[in-house]
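PROTEIN DATA CARD
Card holder: Iodothyronine deiodinase
Chain length: 103
Origin: Ficedula albicollis
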Amino acid sequence: LQKILILLQVTLSVVVGKTLMILFPNAMKRYILKMGEKSRMNQNPKFSYENWGPTFFSFKYLQFVLKVKWKRLEDEAYEGYPAPNTPVVTLDGEVCHLLDFME
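Structure generated from the sequence above:
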């Protein structure tokens, strides 16, 4: 049920965002650049808006956001419930899961 709600929320935001980018491209560019200031991605001169701005609200953007949000559902821990089996990387670069270290 949570995955379906996340799918609906992200899909709606992508549809609204894409529509706004078509109807109000300059306003959306300012909005996206303002969001970029928070993460400081605007400070890299080789990373211009023209390279990444149009990718916002695309199908690949939708897929990426869904993947991240759905993965975070699996990583949540609740008191009194089993710990999530989160993937971890050893110093040798081997990918394991947290519960692999439990004996």
